[in-house]
């Protein structure tokens, strides 16, 4: 990039979404500047990846770096009911016999650093430790950003497109009051890290384990990372976890008591981090793009972490937005319609994953569903691995609706007979 030459695209935030969108645009030869307020590496939650991240990582030229990393390989997921019974490993390769069915458990401080360095290698002008103060507008059109560096010096950077990838504290979602909480998935989480905790051996070492809490008040994630570290967190309704309870440490200890399967796994382990908590979970923006601007990753929305979809949705939204931006720059069209033309299909795909999350919390019996509709097992697996953007998956959703309607009718009939 020629010194002082105006970038065509400015990206706010250097996490997976920001690094993805900036890298893919730079690959097409456009001038991109990325502004990240932190200096990487920095801590971030969200360590588990699902198989469909493979295809975006391939476009980013990240696969070889991932294969050469110390990240634990993930081949499967397992579920533990409130009785403590462990399911057989759910191997992704059984549904899709391809290299993409092996993914990774990542330490986000390391993964995000790899991603932002990869962006720089592809020609993105990366600024770390530089904070975006505001998005600049000419009428309704975004025209750039105002930034401040570590020395306190401020300047304006003009661009044809502004991408907000600033995470859950999204500048534009707050500026325009676009945040729409999901009342059905009003959850929170409390978590920490242990060294020396139990993990399976061989192929099952990297399995994500989802463990139900007794009484179905919540669930624990159990994610093995490299260096003998395991991420262990509990998710539950906001009110249950955070209202009329003690501090986060006390609540976490109480939930461990309600999940003996987790407590047993960490019995001989050492807690090596403080207790973390977050109370602002599932939401989306009421508008994802405007003239000259677009939201990606958590800046657009976040879905409950039950099926580990966070990094996938960051990468996927970054990829789709990048393609729309490049097409718009080529045509000279950076309108709301052009920059957001990917959003309707993306939201349909996210909605399919959201449906599976909601069904889990409502106690839907997936085992019984598959026994009744064995031909849907592959499509249900596609949903779980993140292959969300196929219309034939809606047949599964329709069948779920039919089963729920039948169950409700049977319940009403039974109640009527008792009367």
From TrEMBL:
Transferase in keyword set: no
Species name: Blastopirellula retiformator
Residue stretches spanning the membrane: none
InterPro entries: FAD/NAD-bd_sf, Flavin-dep_Halogenase_NPB, Flavin_halogenase
Domain of life: Bacteria
RNA-binding in keyword set: no
Top EC group: oxidoreductase
Listed name of the protein: Putative FAD-dependent oxidoreductase LodB
GO MF term list: monooxygenase activity
Keyword terms of this UniProt record: Oxidoreductase
UniProt-listed Enzyme Commission number(s): 1.-.-.-
């Amino acid at each position: 990039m020629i010194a002082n030459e105006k970038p065509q695209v400015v990206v706010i935030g250097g996490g997976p979404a920001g690094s993805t969108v900036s890298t893919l645009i730079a690959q097409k030869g456009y001038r991109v500047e990325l502004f990240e307020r932190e200096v990487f590496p920095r801590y971030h939650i969200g360590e588990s990846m699902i198989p469909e991240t493979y295809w975006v990582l391939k476009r980013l030229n990240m696969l070889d770096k991932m294969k050469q990393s110390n990240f634990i390989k993930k081949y499967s997921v397992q579920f533990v009911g409130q009785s403590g019974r462990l399911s057989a490993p759910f191997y992704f390769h059984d549904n899709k016999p391809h290299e993409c069915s092996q993914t990774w458990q990542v330490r986000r401080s390391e993964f995000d650093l790899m991603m932002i360095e990869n962006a720089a290698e592809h020609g993105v002008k990366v600024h770390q430790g530089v904070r975006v103060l505001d998005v600049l507008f000419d009428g309704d059109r975004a025209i750039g950003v105002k930034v401040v560096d570590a020395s306190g010096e401020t300047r304006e950077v003009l661009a044809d497109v502004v991408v907000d990838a600033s995470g859950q504290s999204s500048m534009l979602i707050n500026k325009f009051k676009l945040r729409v909480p999901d009342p059905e998935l009003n959850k929170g989480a409390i978590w920490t890290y242990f060294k020396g905790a139990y993990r399976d051996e061989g192929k099952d070492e990297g399995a994500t384990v989802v463990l139900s809490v007794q009484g179905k008040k919540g669930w624990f994630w159990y994610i093995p990372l490299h260096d003998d570290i395991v991420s262990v967190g509990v998710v539950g309704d906001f009110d249950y976890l955070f209202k009329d309870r003690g501090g986060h440490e006390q609540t976490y200890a109480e939930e461990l008591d309600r999940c003996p399967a987790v407590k047993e796994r960490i019995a001989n382990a050492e807690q090596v981090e403080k207790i973390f908590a977050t109370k602002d979970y599932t939401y989306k923006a009421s508008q994802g793009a405007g003239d000259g601007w677009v939201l990606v990753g958590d800046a657009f929305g976040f879905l409950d972490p039950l099926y580990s979809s966070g990094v996938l949705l960051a990468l996927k939204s970054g990829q789709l937005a990048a393609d729309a931006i490049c097409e718009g720059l080529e045509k000279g069209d950076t309108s709301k319609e052009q920059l957001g033309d990917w959003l309707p299909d993306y939201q349909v795909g996210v909605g399919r994953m959201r449906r599976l999350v909601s069904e889990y919390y409502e106690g839907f019996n997936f085992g019984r569903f598959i026994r009744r509709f064995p031909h849907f097992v592959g499509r249900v697996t596609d949903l779980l691995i993140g292959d969300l953007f196929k219309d034939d998956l809606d047949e599964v959703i329709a069948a779920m609706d039919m089963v729920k309607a039948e169950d409700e009718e049977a319940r009403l009939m039974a109640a009527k007979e008792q009367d």
